[in-house]
Design a protein that fits this description.
Blueprint: E1 2-6, H1 9-12, E2 16-28, H2 32-46, E3 47-48, E4 54-63, E5 67-75, E6 81-89, E7 92-101, E8 108-109, E9 136-137, E10 159-163, E11 169-171, H3 173-177, E12 182-189, E13 194-205, H4 206-213, E14 221-226, E15 231-235, E16 245-250, E17 253-254, E18 264-266, E19 279-285
Parallel strand pairs: 9-13, 10-19
Antiparallel strand pairs: 1-2, 2-7, 3-8, 4-5, 5-6, 6-7, 10-11, 12-13, 13-16, 14-15, 14-19, 16-17, 16-18
């Protein structure tokens, strides 16, 4: 078993101090009781606690057609709880993650923790595939606001583009429109398994941003942040692909606020959590850091046609 220690600023908004992500030897299970036994075995191997905590089943949720995510809670004496996420694939447990709150009481780690180094497989051209695996098309978006709906003055809003670039810039909305808009017809895919097809959007081709800021040699990752504090990350090479853009309009109208107005980054060949809403920062970097959902075990790249839903290293 190998475990990773994860601290990330956006998870603190949800009251999580850190996450311990444990990759376990794959083991098939028959029912929830067997998963509960596995969780207890991992927990008491990782954490040094004198008195056992009560483990409570919370829910399970299909993620695509092959993954099932189980949620539990360890109830603490001070009224708080340690969240547990169990990632399974094809009826086998793959990862167990513990989300530790800000004030967990006396809770010591019992094992050494590894530094996370993402391992990405080579890119396979998905152009011959018509239907993304594990996805079901629905007529309308499911709206998620995991960190709440931000409040801000659009006139004061700015987009910062920084990091390993020759020309870092800060742009307002008027400045973005000067780049000129291109039209797109895209499909949007949520990692949970739903998709919406044939969405008409207008926005700024990301290649125009690249031409302006001029990324330096050695850039490996794109890290983004929204006005709500949400963060995510994906490999730099993904923004070099066609149809990556900064969305300003959708279906003939300005982008709606719940869809990320004034600007949302759209990376249509990656799952939707990579397309940050209410965008305020784009950082070009050579170092991997977890974003919000990556802190909870989701994939560092998230390609739709390769079904990269969860980390597999």
């Amino acid at each position: 078993m190998k475990c990773y220690f994860i601290e990330e600023k956006s998870i603190r908004i949800k009251g999580v101090k850190y996450v311990v992500d444990c990759v376990v030897e794959e083991k098939r299970y028959g029912d929830v009781k067997e998963i509960r036994d596995m969780v207890n075995a991992v927990f008491y191997a990782v954490f040094d606690v004198k008195n056992p905590f009560k483990l409570v089943f919370e829910s399970n949720e299909p993620i695509g057609s092959s993954h099932l995510l189980y949620r539990f809670r360890y109830m603490l004496d001070n009224g708080r709880f340690i969240g547990v996420r169990v990632v399974t694939k094809n009826n086998a447990v793959r990862r167990v993650l513990f989300t530790v709150p800000e004030e967990p009481g006396k809770l010591n780690l019992n094992i050494g923790l590894a530094n996370e180094q993402p391992v990405l497989t080579e890119y396979n051209d998905p152009s011959s595939k018509e239907q993304p695996p594990g996805q079901v098309f629905i007529p309308n978006f499911v709206i998620y606001n995991i960190l709440g709906i931000p409040k801000f003055n659009v006139e004061e809003w700015r987009l910062e583009v920084s990091g390993l670039v020759e020309n870092p810039v800060t742009l307002d909305l008027e400045g973005l429109f000067r780049f000129g808009l291109a039209e797109y017809l895209i499909d949007f895919h949520c990692v949970t398994g739903w998709s919406v097809g044939n969405i008409r959007m207008k926005g700024i081709p990301f290649e125009r941003i690249l031409s302006l800021v001029k990324p330096m040699e050695g850039v490996k990752w794109i890290y983004t942040e929204g006005m709500d504090g949400y963060t995510t990350i994906f490999p730099f090479e993904e923004v070099l692909k066609p149809n990556v853009f900064l969305a300003l309009e959708m279906n003939g109208r300005p982008l709606e606020f719940l869809h990320g107005y004034p600007v949302r980054l759209i990376v249509p060949h990656l799952y939707g959590w990579k397309s940050a809403k209410w965008l305020r920062k784009i950082v070009f970097t050579d170092k991997y850091v977890n974003g919000y959902w990556e802190s909870f075990g989701y994939h560092p790249r998230g390609r739709v046609f390769e079904e990269e839903r969860f980390k597999d290293y």
